[in-house]
From TrEMBL:
Its main location: membrane. It is a multi-pass membrane protein. It comes from the Bacteria. It comes from Anthropogastromicrobium aceti. Pfam families: ABC_tran. It is found in: Cell membrane. Residues 341-583 form the ABC transporter domain. This is ABC transporter ATP-binding protein/permease. The chain crosses the membrane at residues 57-77, 164-183. Keywords: ATP-binding, Membrane, Nucleotide-binding, Transmembrane, Transmembrane helix. The keyword Membrane applies. GO terms for molecular function: ATP binding; ATP hydrolysis activity; ATPase-coupled lipid transmembrane transporter activity.
Length: 591
């Protein structure tokens, strides 16, 4: 209970900082509803008193008219706050909370997000808490409204008979116990469901994401996927079956006790008093009405208490997520221009596989403006080395220096801004081509000229300039009927254009020719070496013919640099590089 309170108060404080006005609205709504409840109970009593004691018609009419005017005014204000202000304020809060969560997610290392448990937490936090801020505030509002209604009706009943207060209090305690049990079960259920739901949603996604869509048809994977979908749905049903009956039983018990205790017992006591002539008909009716209002409020409060407990468990996850220690952040900005990169005995293993050193003591000095190629077999650790240089992962031992300064001292944003990367599998957004390059909206003609320039350099301008909407064409058909689909090679060229636009001092190309035909590949390397003229260039490629031009080539094997030198030196050494080169040359010759 203490923990629930602590979590809920922590969240309330956080939301209060996001938008104080929402709390003003809440207070106004609670007050209006309490006044309305009090008015309705008093009106019944006054009306019945008038009938019984034969007060004048005008007295009653005046009272009812005044009550109706006040109630109508209150209802109008309530409506405006409830249906307009609240929605807007909830959205402000949601936006701010979402922004804080995204900032935190961004600040956490990729390494931490690589774990399934962390993914589950991340999903709960992003999906649930985002929408939960609204429902949490609603629960708080309902809870406080319920408590105020109970207080108001209690004060009214107290003026007539104290016994009903005791009955209501007993009912509230039982309601709180039931609510607590329901909340515990609900949260347990949710936690067990999350993994199965994630799997089900993943399979659903496979059915509609275009890249998968084509592959599943081609490989006839539909029945296999449907089987997996059925499995996850069965798992979900299994979890529901194991928790739902207990939840339903506690719920039934709660409803039953509210009606028998709070309403039934009070009615019995009142009936006895009427028979004994110790209570008036008007007191009976108004107390019964007050008790019924109180019953409703007790039910409401116990429901909301259980909701608050559920909220608290999610809030705990959010707090845990937001409190996760962020990577120690550097503050130094990387200077503009080309950079030298030094790796000193760099070791690294992914935490998912501690036993395997993916980078096993690599030392390498890349001079400012040098063009270097990393080659080697699949899984040798080339991409991982790049990720370390980009600061996406932290080396487990050794050091990485950029311009002689440890990588950790640099501000992450500035570091990534000075290294432009074309990834092995480029990812684009369903926005326009220009926006995909600028990563913001086009603002003026200078933007357009710069976009055109990098599209020309990457070799995609020819295609883009012939599109009806040119660089304003949207990628994909998800949001635009006329959206365009890029081929694999075109998609890679777009990624290259984006990297060139960044104008960073270091350009990293991780197999940029993956989807290009041989002619396009040769052209692309020409362009890249030209574009990289004023940049430090790191190139990963399996096609050794293309990387011959590099100033230096490192042959990586099992996380170590096995051979290093120019193409000519390595060929002369006649080692593994030379063997691989001859093998590829032979294959090309055969073709
Ligand atoms: N996020 C990750 N978590 C755990 N292991 C990983 C992760 N990413 C890569 N690995 C493993 O690290 C090893 C090196 O992968 P890396 O992608 O660096 O190789 P590579 O030399 O670039 O291979 P390729 O030429 O096939 O692209 C592989 O065995 C891979 O399975």
């Amino acid at each position: 209970m203490k923990k629930t309170m602590k979590m809920n108060l922590w969240f309330l404080k956080k939301l209060y900082q996001y938008d104080k006005k929402r709390f003003g609205s809440m207070a106004a709504l609670i007050l209006i509803r309490a006044i309305k409840t009090l008015l309705s109970v008093i009106t019944i009593k006054v009306a019945l008193d008038c009938i019984v004691t034969y007060h004048s018609f005008w007295y009653l009419a005046g009272f009812v008219a005044a009550e109706r005017i006040v109630s109508s005014l209150l209802a109008l204000i309530e409506c405006k706050i409830d249906w307009l202000d609240k929605e807007i304020q909830n959205n402000t809060i949601k936006k701010q909370l979402g922004a804080e969560m995204f900032r935190q997610a961004e600040a956490l290392s990729l390494e931490r997000l690589d774990h399934t448990e962390m993914y589950d937490q991340y999903k709960i936090v992003l999906e649930e808490i985002g929408s939960r801020s609204g429902s949490f505030l609603q629960s708080t509002e309902n809870l406080l409204t319920g408590i105020c209604n109970i207080a108001v009706t209690m004060i009214f009943v107290l003026t007539i008979d104290i016994r009903f207060i005791l009955i209501a209090a007993l009912s509230a305690v039982i309601g709180a116990v039931a609510g607590n049990k329901i909340a515990q079960k609900e949260v347990q259920k949710r936690e067990e469901l999350i993994r199965h739901e994630r799997k089900r949603d993943y399979i659903k996604r496979i059915f509609y994401v275009p890249e998968y869509n084509e592959m599943t048809r081609l490989t006839n994977a539909n029945s296999f996927l449907l089987q997996k979908y059925d499995e996850s749905v069965s798992d979900i049903k299994q979890v529901l079956r194991s928790h739902q009956p207990t939840i339903a039983h506690w719920n039934d018990l709660n409803i039953l006790q509210i009606f028998t205790l709070n309403f039934g017992l009070s009615a019995l006591l009142m009936a006895r008093d009427i028979a004994a002539g110790t209570v008036s008909a008007s007191a009976f009716t108004s107390v019964m009405f007050a008790c019924s209002t109180m019953s409703g409020s007790v039910g409401w409060v116990s429901n909301e208490l259980s909701e608050m407990k559920k909220h608290a468990l999610y809030i705990e996850k959010l707090q845990d997520f937001l409190n996760k220690t962020q990577e120690a952040k550097g503050t130094v900005s990387v200077a503009p221009g080309m950079h030298e990169i030094t790796l000193q005995d760099v070791h690294f293993h992914y935490s998912a596989n501690v036993a395997r050193e993916v980078t096993d003591g690599i030392s390498l000095h890349i001079k400012s403006g040098e063009k270097i190629a990393l080659v080697g077999e699949n899984g040798a650790g080339k991409t991982t080395l790049i990720k370390l240089i980009e600061g996406l992962y932290r080396q487990t031992a050794g050091s990485i220096l950029i311009d002689k300064m440890p990588i950790e001292t640099f501000d992450g944003k500035s570091l990534r801004g000075s290294i432009a990367t074309v990834m092995q599998k480029p990812v684009h957004y369903s926005f326009t081509i220009a926006e995909n390059i600028l990563l913001r909206e086009v603002q003026n003609d200078t933007d357009r000229r710069r976009v055109q320039k990098v599209l020309e350099e990457s070799g995609l301008w020819e295609r883009v300039s012939h599109l009806p909407k040119g660089m304003d064409s949207v990628l994909g058909k998800e949001f635009d009927e006329e959206g365009i689909e890029l081929s694999g090679g075109e998609s890679q060229k777009l990624a290259i254009a984006r990297a060139l636009y960044e104008d960073a001092g270091v350009l990293i190309l991780d197999e940029p020719a993956n989807s290009l035909d041989p002619i396009a590949e040769a052209e692309m390397y020409e362009r890249m070496f030209a574009a990289g003229k004023d940049r430090t260039l790191i190139l990963i490629s399996h096609r050794l013919y293309s990387t011959r031009k590099a100033d230096r080539i490192c042959y990586i094997e099992n996380g170590k640099i096995a051979e290093e030198g120019t193409h000519e030196e390595l060929m002369k050494a006649n080692g593994k590089y030379a063997a691989m080169y001859h093998l590829q040359a032979g294959l090309y010759a055969q073709e």
